[in-house]
Amino acid sequence: MRKTSEENIFGYLQKHLSPKRFEHSYNVAKFAAELAKAHGADILKAQTAGLLHDCAKFKTDKQLISFCEKRKIMSKYFDGIKKYSPQLLHSYAGAAIAKEKLGITDKDILNAVRNHTLGRENMSLLEKIIFVSDAVSFDRKSAESSKIRKLAFTHFEKAFLKVIAKKIQYVLDGGKWLCPQAIDTRNYYVI
Ligand SMILES: [Fe+2]
Ligand SMILES: [Fe+2]
Question: Least enclosed by CB within 10 Å: which of 101, 119, 154, 189?
Fold first, then answer.
């Protein structure tokens, strides 16, 4: 059986991620643990999922596509993602790496990694915590992020909705392709 130790995860991340990305992952883990503590989620799972969430971020577009195709990792909008925004696949690939390379078997952790970018219907508290933490971790310096960070302790669901909106707005502002999965997620939680 593969080791699932923290040391193993740190080793993998240090080997594959840039120092900046590593620092971001550490910050996401730290904030996710704080939110887990505040809202009664599993702190260790939050830390682990936070550390792992971007573990596939070092892969190129081409590598991500072939990695996901090889494993038949298919999201509903795979064709569009592949064509217009392959980096979105890093969350799906990340869950596969966590399972295959690091021996993570906990479904909630794997789902939190898998859905940290686009979200989905019916997310668990842990999934939402990682989704929020990724968007407003301590390395996100904007005033808006800092506001949402505070809100996440007092009104977590409101903070979660704000993160969904912030992510969609970011894509719109950049004039980029908006994945319909992000809209599905948004609609599921606002209607
Ligand atoms: Fe990510
Ligand atoms: Fe991230």
Answer: 154
